[in-house]
Amino acid sequence: MVWTPLHAKIHRTMRSRHLFERNQRLLIAVSGGQDSLCLIKLLLDLQSKWGWDLGIAHCDHRWRSDSEANALHVENLAKTWGISFYLETANEPINSEAAARDWRYQALSAIAQTNNYQYIVTGHTASDRAETLLYNLIRGTGADGLQALTWQRPLTTGIVLVRPLLEITRSQTEQFCQEFKLPIWEDSTNQDLQYARNRIRQELIPYLRHNFNPQVESALAQTAELLQAEVEYLEKAAQQFREKAMSWGIGHEEDSLIAPFPLRLNRRVLQKAPLALQRRVMRQVLQQILTDAPSFEHIEKLTALIIAPNRSQTDPFPGGAIAQVEGDWICLK
Questions:
Q1: Whole-number pLDDT of residue 248
Q2: pTM of the prediction?
Q3: Do the Cβ atoms of 187 and 64 come closer than 8 Å?
Q4: What's residue 256's pLDDT?
C-alpha cells in the first residue's frame, strides 16, 4: 500500500476527533464520484490499522438515465474490493435536492440498522462545507445554518453519521483519485445549473477564488468549524436557561386539559439572559411545538414577549398555538 500525506492526515483526524472506535462496522455511502471513491480507498487502506468491517451502500434516486449503470459500476467496485454491497433504489424518480437528501439518509439508516452497522460514513469535503455555508447564507440563516455539515451527528439510535473528509477539498480528492487511477463515475447532474448548489460550485466559488481568495473553500470551511464550536456552546447555555425558565402545566392542571401545549416560560429568568440566548431559548421551544423549523419571524415575535406588557399575545403559530403574557409567565396554549 502507498501511504500518502492524505492517508496520514485522515488517520490523524480520525484519532484526534475520535470519529470512530476500533473494530467497528462502517457503512460507506458511495455514489461513484471522486469524493466517495477517495473516501472508500482511504478507509480500505486504513482498515488494517483500525480493524474495521466495511460495507458499501449506493442509493439510486432514478433521476438520471444512467443511474442503473452507475449503481452497477459501484457494485462491481465492491466486488473487486471484496466488500459487502447494498443497493437502495427509489420507487419513483426524486427530483428535489432536499427530498433526495432526506430519502438517502432514511435509506442508509435502514440498511445500517438491518445489517448492524454502527456508523454511516459520507465523503463530504471542505468544498461541500463551503458551498453549504454560502447556500444557507444566501437564503438567510443564523450561525446554526452556517456551521452545517458537522463532523458527526446521530442519525438514529445506535447509528452515527460521520464525515471524515471535512478538511479535504474537492481538488485534493480529484488528485488522489488520479494518483490511484480510481474509476470515477461522472454525474451529469453536477453540471446542471438549474440547481442552486451547482451554480455556487460552478460559478460563485470560482469567481470568489479568482477575485478574492485562492483558498476560499478552505477559509469558509474553517469559518464553519469555528461556528460549530460556538453553536454547541450557545445551545448548551440556552438549554440551561430554558430549563430554569420552563414548567409544563405546573399549577395549571385545568388549563393543561384544554390547551394542547401547557408550556410556560418565566420572563424574569429570561430577562437575565443576553438577546442571543433569549432567541436561542425561543427557538428551542418552538422546535418542540412546530412541525417545521421555526422562522426568524416566529422566533422574534416570541422573544418580544419577554418584555411585553401583561396580556400581550402573538398571532397563531403554524398549527394553532398562541403565546400570551400572564404576569411573569409566557404561556403557550
A1: 52
A2: 0.86
A3: yes
A4: 39
